[in-house]
Design goal:
Blueprint (H helix, E strand, L loop, with lengths): L3 H4 L2 H29 L6 H16 L3 E8 L2 E6 L4 E4 L5 H9 L3 E4 L2 H4 L10 E9 L2 E11 L6 H4 L1 H50 L1 H17 L4 E4 L5 E4 L1 H7 L3 H4 L16 H8 L6 E6 L5 E9 L8 E8 L1 H4 L5 H31 L8 H15 L4 H12 L10 H4 L7 H7 L2 H9 L8 H7 L20 H16 L10 H10 L7 H11 L6 H4 L8
Antiparallel strand pairs: 1-2, 1-6, 2-3, 4-5, 5-6, 7-8, 7-11, 9-10, 10-11
Length: 549
């Protein structure tokens, strides 16, 4: 018990004040330890941000908690009231001071601007804390209208916010890596699609010797359009064909690399790559992969496939050298990787387009009377699609599907395809199988567009009278409806083996007569606008490049 006379003693007062501060400090430390325990790594950046804001409100108080943090080179904003934005800069003066000084800032609340006129908020303060990892600023936290000025809590909070900064920084890194891996997965998927289409072309060209002869120039142009190194070798591992990218990687001309063991050219080594040997030994055609690190510091993923000929002898193997340098150096070249990935995505689409065009030409090489038919249909479909307002991505998918819509004819006898007289019923029935054959060829390739459905459905009609499935109306995909109209226009207007071309006018009359019965009205109307244009010329249509169509 302290006597009344002791109450006025200065030492007693100082002792009481010290005890009070110690009690406050102990309570503050317990609060901070509890709050640190609430902020732990968790799945999802948004979940972590929400947990951080609620923990700070529950532990410290205030009318709102504002969080500014950097993610993907942008300044993100989130607050306890549910607002989420991208900010161009630190638009709060207190937050800007914290970011500039990397230190705690305290400021008396501006109640007039904050619309808090209640006496309960008189004498309240705003606190700003930097979120720093190492010497780098991760973000800034602002606590608004807290009534704790002068307490020891603000001086004890920096360790808590250092913990918050570390957890937030790790989750931002995890989110960035997750997105980067997804972009890499998509790139590899598109590379696989291009590879599948190229393998189909190789096998088909091998089966039809005449097609190889007629398509040689087209093949070489397609091969050279691929930006990644590609080469073929024989059973002795000597190079028999290579694209321009391979020769450039080796620092040689294409003529100089032919005939040499590939490990003496590129990638250099003491002998064949193990995945190459395995691919030739397998009973089934399977992919073998191997990562290669070249002397110039680049990384490649070598995809090796054996090619099976008619006599069953695997005398060739193809190597697709996928450049994965950006992926391997991503930790130190993050910004550059994102730009490279985007460029390669565009290039892969170009490679896919070139490969599909080469496949289309291989199909047409078996039917000289209709050579150019698919190209003209594809070019006309592009014009119709643009007339109907399709975006660039949709137009590209439409073009690729139309360019090989008759790919199923590659399995039909050439004497029927080029027959100069009317087909007999049994021959026509055989011709009508080509949409299903085309679909069976393409369905295993995961195009980002309905390429297989276009081949399958371009002879379907709105009233269900088409083939091979007898689909009605909306069951037919939109792109197939466009290709159907373009196909009829080109087929009627152009010369066929058994008759002269009927001309654009008669073809347009046929389309209008069956508009709404066989053909989608909006597509027919768009086609009419295209073909009645002064610039339209059916004869030269197939000579146009995709971008010029």
């Amino acid at each position: 018990m302290i006597l009344a006379s002791e109450e006025s003693n200065p030492e007693t007062k100082r002792l009481r004040e010290r005890l009070r501060r110690l009690a406050n400090d102990k309570a503050s430390l317990q609060l901070i330890i509890h709050m640190i325990g609430q902020i732990t790594p968790m799945a999802g950046l948004e979940n972590l941000v929400t947990k951080m804001l609620s923990t700070i409100v529950d532990g410290i108080g205030g009318t709102n908690i504002k969080l500014y943090y950097y993610f993907e080179k942008e300044l993100h904003y989130a607050d306890f009231l549910g607002e989420r934005h991208i900010k161009p800069y630190f638009d709060d003066p207190l937050v800007a001071r914290v970011a500039a000084t990397l230190s705690f800032v305290e400021q008396e609340s501006d109640l007039e601007s904050s619309l808090l006129h209640s006496d309960a908020f008189q004498g309240s303060w705003n606190w700003g804390f930097p979120l720093v990892v190492g010497e780098g600023l991760v973000g800034v936290v602002k606590i608004e209208n807290i009534q704790m000025s002068g307490t020891s809590l603000s001086s004890q909070l920096p360790p808590f916010f250092s913990h918050v900064a570390l957890i937030l920084s790790n989750e931002i890194h995890n989110e960035t890596e997750k997105k980067k891996k997804e972009e890499t997965r998509q790139r590899a998927q598109e590379a696989e699609q291009a590879r599948q289409a190229m393998l189909f072309l190789l096998e088909d060209m091998n089966e039809s010797g005449e097609a190889v002869k007629h398509a040689k120039e087209e093949w070489e142009a397609t091969f050279d359009a691929v930006s990644d190194p590609i080469f073929l070798h024989d059973r002795d591992f000597r190079i028999v064909r290579a694209n321009r990218a391979y020769a450039e990687s080796a620092g040689m001309s294409i003529g100089d690399v032919i005939g040499h063991p590939y490990w003496e050219v590129f990638p250099k080594g003491d002998g064949p790559m193990p995945n190459c040997v395995k691919a030739g030994e397998k009973a089934e055609e399977e992919e073998e992969e191997e990562e290669i690190n070249t002397s110039d510091g680049r990384f490649y993923l070598s995809h090796s496939y054996a090619i099976n000929y008619e006599n069953g002898v695997r005398s060739l193997s193809i190597h697709f050298m996928q450049d994965i340098t950006a992926r391997r150096l991503s930790e130190i070249q993050r910004d550059e990787v994102m730009a490279v990935n985007q460029q390669q995505l565009v290039q892969l689409k170009e490679n896919l387009k070139g490969t599909i065009e080469a496949v289309a030409k291989a199909v047409e090489a078996r039917d000289p009377y209709t050579a150019g038919h698919q190209r003209r249909v594809a070019s006309l479909a592009v014009l119709i699609g643009r007339q109907m307002g399709l975006d660039d991505e949709g137009v590209l998918g439409l073009y690729l599907g139309a360019a090989i819509h008759d790919i199923g004819k590659i399995r039909l006898p050439s004497e029927i395809l080029s027959k100069p007289t009317q087909l007999r019923p049994v021959e026509y029935a055989l011709i009508k199988t080509h949409p299903q054959i085309g679909y069976d060829i393409l369905k295993g390739i995961e195009f980002p567009w309905p390429v297989a459905d276009i081949a399958h459905q371009h002879h379907e009609r709105l009233d269900g009278s088409g083939y091979p499935q007898g689909l009605h109306g909306d069951d037919i995909c939109f792109e197939a409806k466009i290709v159907a109209v373009a196909d009829v226009m080109e087929a009627m207007a152009s010369d066929r083996p058994y008759r002269a071309g009927l001309g654009v006018a008669k073809a347009m009359k046929e389309l209008n007569r069956n508009k709404g019965v066989f053909y989608q009205p909006e597509v027919v109307d768009a086609c009419e606008k295209v073909v009645t244009s002064k610039k339209f010329d059916l004869i030269t249509l197939g000579d146009k490049e995709y971008d010029d169509a």
